[in-house]
Design the sequence.
Protein backbone atom coordinates (compact mmCIF):
# COMPACT_ATOMS: atom_id res chain seq x y z
CA UNK A 1 0.00 0.00 0.00
CA UNK A 2 1.29 3.45 -0.90
CA UNK A 3 2.00 6.07 1.70
CA UNK A 4 -0.21 9.14 1.63
CA UNK A 5 1.37 12.19 0.04
CA UNK A 6 1.09 15.62 1.58
CA UNK A 7 -1.60 17.78 -0.04
CA UNK A 8 0.93 20.61 -0.18
CA UNK A 9 2.57 19.03 -3.22
CA UNK A 10 -0.67 19.09 -5.15
CA UNK A 11 -1.60 22.58 -3.99
CA UNK A 12 1.81 23.97 -4.98
CA UNK A 13 1.56 22.26 -8.38
CA UNK A 14 -1.91 23.71 -8.88
CA UNK A 15 -0.64 27.16 -7.85
CA UNK A 16 2.17 26.91 -10.43
CA UNK A 17 -0.33 25.85 -13.09
CA UNK A 18 -2.63 28.69 -12.08
CA UNK A 19 0.27 31.16 -12.32
CA UNK A 20 1.23 29.92 -15.79
CA UNK A 21 -2.36 30.12 -17.00
CA UNK A 22 -2.86 33.58 -15.51
CA UNK A 23 0.39 34.76 -17.10
CA UNK A 24 -0.79 33.48 -20.49
CA UNK A 25 -4.19 35.15 -20.17
CA UNK A 26 -2.81 38.50 -18.99
CA UNK A 27 0.23 38.93 -21.22
CA UNK A 28 -0.49 37.11 -24.50
CA UNK A 29 -2.25 38.86 -27.34
CA UNK A 30 -2.71 35.84 -29.60
CA UNK A 31 -6.24 34.49 -29.31
CA UNK A 32 -5.12 30.85 -29.45
CA UNK A 33 -2.67 31.43 -26.60
CA UNK A 34 -5.48 33.07 -24.61
CA UNK A 35 -7.68 30.00 -25.10
CA UNK A 36 -4.85 27.68 -24.05
CA UNK A 37 -4.17 29.85 -20.99
CA UNK A 38 -7.79 29.49 -19.95
CA UNK A 39 -7.52 25.71 -20.36
CA UNK A 40 -4.43 25.69 -18.12
CA UNK A 41 -6.42 27.62 -15.49
CA UNK A 42 -9.17 25.01 -15.69
CA UNK A 43 -6.59 22.22 -15.34
CA UNK A 44 -5.33 23.87 -12.14
CA UNK A 45 -8.87 23.93 -10.79
CA UNK A 46 -9.27 20.24 -11.66
CA UNK A 47 -6.05 19.37 -9.84
CA UNK A 48 -7.20 21.26 -6.74
CA UNK A 49 -10.60 19.60 -6.80
CA UNK A 50 -9.23 16.05 -7.06
CA UNK A 51 -6.39 16.67 -4.59
CA UNK A 52 -8.72 18.07 -1.94
CA UNK A 53 -11.15 15.20 -2.40
CA UNK A 54 -8.46 12.81 -1.17
CA UNK A 55 -7.97 14.67 2.10
CA UNK A 56 -11.11 14.76 4.17
CA UNK A 57 -10.08 17.44 6.63
CA UNK A 58 -13.63 18.38 7.52
CA UNK A 59 -14.49 14.83 8.49
CA UNK A 60 -11.38 14.59 10.63
CA UNK A 61 -12.20 17.96 12.20
CA UNK A 62 -15.72 16.78 13.07
CA UNK A 63 -14.28 13.60 14.58
CA UNK A 64 -11.93 15.69 16.73
CA UNK A 65 -14.79 17.97 17.73
CA UNK A 66 -16.92 14.99 18.72
CA UNK A 67 -14.03 13.65 20.81
CA UNK A 68 -13.85 17.00 22.63
CA UNK A 69 -17.62 16.97 23.22
CA UNK A 70 -17.41 13.40 24.45
CA UNK A 71 -14.57 14.31 26.85
CA UNK A 72 -16.75 17.05 28.39
CA UNK A 73 -19.81 14.78 28.56
CA UNK A 74 -21.97 16.74 26.10
CA UNK A 75 -23.06 13.62 24.22
CA UNK A 76 -26.69 13.38 25.39
CA UNK A 77 -29.47 11.76 23.35
CA UNK A 78 -30.55 14.96 21.56
CA UNK A 79 -26.95 15.71 20.54
CA UNK A 80 -26.49 12.19 19.19
CA UNK A 81 -29.83 12.29 17.37
CA UNK A 82 -29.09 15.56 15.59
CA UNK A 83 -25.41 15.01 14.80
CA UNK A 84 -25.05 11.29 15.31
CA UNK A 85 -25.17 10.05 11.75
CA UNK A 86 -22.41 12.35 10.61
CA UNK A 87 -20.29 11.60 13.66
CA UNK A 88 -20.74 7.88 13.21
CA UNK A 89 -19.72 8.05 9.56
CA UNK A 90 -16.73 10.21 10.47
CA UNK A 91 -15.57 7.48 12.84
CA UNK A 92 -14.79 5.38 9.78
CA UNK A 93 -12.25 7.91 8.55
CA UNK A 94 -9.50 6.46 6.38
CA UNK A 95 -6.82 8.85 5.14
CA UNK A 96 -6.30 6.92 1.90
CA UNK A 97 -9.95 7.19 0.85
CA UNK A 98 -10.59 9.32 -2.22
CA UNK A 99 -14.08 10.61 -2.83
CA UNK A 100 -15.09 9.39 -6.32
CA UNK A 101 -17.65 12.18 -6.77
CA UNK A 102 -14.85 14.70 -7.35
CA UNK A 103 -13.41 12.48 -10.07
CA UNK A 104 -16.79 12.27 -11.76
CA UNK A 105 -17.18 16.05 -11.73
CA UNK A 106 -13.67 16.53 -13.11
CA UNK A 107 -14.22 14.00 -15.91
CA UNK A 108 -17.49 15.70 -16.86
CA UNK A 109 -15.75 19.08 -16.75
CA UNK A 110 -12.93 17.80 -18.98
CA UNK A 111 -15.43 16.53 -21.55
CA UNK A 112 -17.39 19.78 -21.50
CA UNK A 113 -14.14 21.75 -21.65
CA UNK A 114 -13.10 19.82 -24.74
CA UNK A 115 -16.41 20.71 -26.38
CA UNK A 116 -16.03 24.37 -25.41
CA UNK A 117 -12.48 24.61 -26.71
CA UNK A 118 -13.57 22.99 -30.00
CA UNK A 119 -16.25 25.67 -30.43
CA UNK A 120 -13.75 28.38 -29.40
CA UNK A 121 -11.23 27.17 -31.97
CA UNK A 122 -13.92 27.24 -34.67
CA UNK A 123 -14.65 30.86 -33.67
CA UNK A 124 -10.93 31.60 -33.82
CA UNK A 125 -10.73 30.17 -37.37
CA UNK A 126 -13.66 32.39 -38.40
CA UNK A 127 -12.00 35.40 -36.71
CA UNK A 128 -8.84 34.76 -38.69
CA UNK A 129 -10.83 34.51 -41.93
CA UNK A 130 -12.68 37.76 -41.15
CA UNK A 131 -9.86 39.91 -39.74
CA UNK A 132 -6.78 38.24 -41.22
CA UNK A 133 -5.01 38.26 -37.84
CA UNK A 134 -5.15 36.56 -34.44
CA UNK A 135 -3.89 39.56 -32.48
CA UNK A 136 -6.59 40.59 -30.02
CA UNK A 137 -5.41 44.25 -29.93
CA UNK A 138 -5.78 44.60 -33.70
CA UNK A 139 -9.21 42.98 -33.59
CA UNK A 140 -10.39 45.60 -31.11
CA UNK A 141 -9.40 48.37 -33.51
CA UNK A 142 -11.17 46.71 -36.45
CA UNK A 143 -14.77 47.10 -35.39
CA UNK A 144 -17.45 45.46 -37.53
Sequence:
Amino acid sequence: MALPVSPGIYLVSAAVLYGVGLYAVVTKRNVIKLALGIEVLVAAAHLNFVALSAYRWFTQWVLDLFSIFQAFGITDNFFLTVFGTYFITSNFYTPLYVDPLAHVFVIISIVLGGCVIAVALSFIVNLYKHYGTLDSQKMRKLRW
Summary: The chain is about 80% helix and 0% strand.
